[in-house]
Amino acid sequence: MGLLSSVQMDKRERIFLVSAGFVGTGEPPFEDLKYYDVTCRVRTDTGWISVSDYGLENDYILSISFVIDTCDTGWVLFNVLRGSVNEHRVGKFNINQGNSPFEVEVIDCYEGSGVGSIALREWDNSLHVAYEKNGKIYYTKRENVVWTTPYLVSNGHNPSISVGGALVHIVWEEYLFMVHRIRHRYTDGNVWSTIRDVMGLTPTFGRGFYPYIYNGSVVTWHQLTSDLKPPFPNYDIFVSTLTPFGTWSRPRNISNTLPDSRYP
């Protein structure tokens, strides 16, 4: 069974799929067999072939984010819930080697909840991570084979990270003035911009959730557009693009005609 999937294509245009899953029913007498694992597969002419697998007993995976660097190393950011302790881990493996060993590094460990996102800056082959830790967004990058001290970006939830040129962009949802706003900030890895609002003065209830940023310049999210008439409530998918002036375009509703569109 595959859950929490993330897809990437390498420089040879091969498609790789990383997902979480579980083995066993969790019911007697097989309750000890239940665990989550992280599996990477590559698409071939004959189907999907396993590249790497990492098993976890009695732990739960909450999110997965995946990139492939310029040296054909796969990097998987995933967070593991062990009781009340949340660990943000990064696993790496060789995408060209069958049954490649899955080496794991721990970025942060704390009591509480939060998910994360990973991005690659190709020109220097550097890795960048944004993650939530108890209602706050943190950023770290891998430098000289170690992860830097996490930097507090803002309050918020559900971050997404992306690279555009030399800049690293992060978006997240933040509860401000009784509504959920989509917020944005960027860095060159050292100096940070001010925080900007992506949603603008949208003619809706202004409640945005689960943003996703692509190429440092395109942001999508789902937004509450009606809580006064059927269906109760209704969500639509919105998109905004970064203009040459460094501002965000007026959000545009790109949902189909079906009600309740979510999770872009």
Structure explained in plain terms:
This protein has about 260 residues and is mainly beta. The protein has two domains: about 1-110, no CATH class; about 115-264, Glycosyl hydrolase domain, family 43 (Tachylectin-2, Chain A). The protein is about 0% helix and about 60% strand. The protein is built from no helices and 21 strands. The protein has strands at about 5-10, 15-25, 35-45, 45-55, 60-70, 75-80, 85-95, 105-110, 115-120, 125-130, 135-145, 145, 150-155, 155-165, 165-175, 180-185, 195, 205-215, 220-225, 235-240, 250-255. Strands 9, 10, 11, 12 and 13 form a five-stranded antiparallel beta sheet that branches. Strand 1 (about 5-10) and strand 2 (about 15-25) form a beta hairpin. The model has no long low-confidence stretch (mean pLDDT about 85).
